[in-house]
Write a structure and sequence with these properties.
It is built from six helices and nine strands; from the N terminus they run H-E-E-E-E-H-E-H-E-E-H-E-E-H-H. It is of the alpha+beta class.
């Protein structure tokens, strides 16, 4: 039966939003600790373990390069376009220009987007340029621009590091010459524990309990053994960072890339 295109077509059955919110919302009454006495987190990981990772390139067919990444419940898709001729009046540029735009989907989380979320998108877009610019050989395409568009489909925690990894894979899939790929990683300090790859529930729980002293996000270039971007919030000591070890799954990801 043909549908009226002027109407908002919907499914035959609908449910109240509170039904899904009750599933996504963290239950603080049953979970009062982020790490139990055995040193295990809510999902059974240790403090230095990361979640399972799934990667795929060539996801967006109409783009020159694209990628899709899943890290636990976090899902990110990225598309890369260019290089294309720069429309700026400054024609004396000897290096290419990188443009990044990061957006959260309206259904990425159970909480509706606010003005603060829009400011966070702009901040992440600027940080992504800082993270990826050292990885690209910009001298190869002077007076040209490469555009990267990242969409966070589901925010299950540590979405920005996943976006950095996805954008790096999209650049490689597009055939852009790189010095090295960039891998995003994050941790959150909870008392004496440094939680690697925190989930959305852990981020909210630590903030709710007021036991978060700081968080850290880095972009690492394994081909050059260099860090291209560091973003820190709060207070983390050097002794705390020196105790952090990469998990086996993160080592495996670096090996695959």
């Amino acid at each position: 039966m043909p549908q009226d295109s002027r109407r908002n077509c919907h499914t035959d059955e609908s449910y109240h939003p509170d039904r899904f919110l009750s599933i996504c919302k963290f239950n603080t009454q049953n979970n009062t600790t982020v790490i139990n006495d055995n040193g295990l987190r809510i999902d059974g990981r240790s403090s230095s373990d990361s979640r399972p990772i799934f990667l795929e390139t060539g996801f967006v067919t109409r783009s020159k390069g694209s990628s899709y990444i899943e890290i636990g419940n976090t899902k990110v898709i990225c598309a890369c376009y260019g290089p294309k001729q720069l429309q700026s009046k400054d024609t004396g540029l000897r290096k290419g220009v990188l443009s990044c735009e990061l957006k959260y989907a309206s259904f990425a989380s159970a909480v509706h987007k606010t003005d603060q979320a829009n400011m966070l998108e702009k901040e992440y877009s600027v940080l992504m340029v800082d993270a990826l610019s050292p990885c690209i050989i910009l001298d190869r395409f002077p007076k040209a621009q490469v555009d990267i568009f990242v969409t966070i489909l589901e925010d299950g925690g540590s979405a920005f590091p996943a976006a950095i990894t996805a954008a790096s894979l999209a650049l490689a899939d597009a055939g852009i010459e790189l010095y090295s790929l960039a891998i995003g990683a994050s941790l959150q300090q909870h008392k004496e524990w440094a939680l690697v790859d925190p989930t959305h529930e852990e981020e909210n729980m630590v903030a709710l309990l007021g036991e978060c002293t700081g968080s850290l996000c880095i972009a690492y270039m394994p081909g050059l053994s260099q860090v291209s971007m560091v973003s820190q919030q709060g207070y983390i000591t050097h002794q705390q960072l020196s105790q952090v070890q990469l998990s086996k799954s993160l080592h495996y990801t670096l090996f695959l890339i």
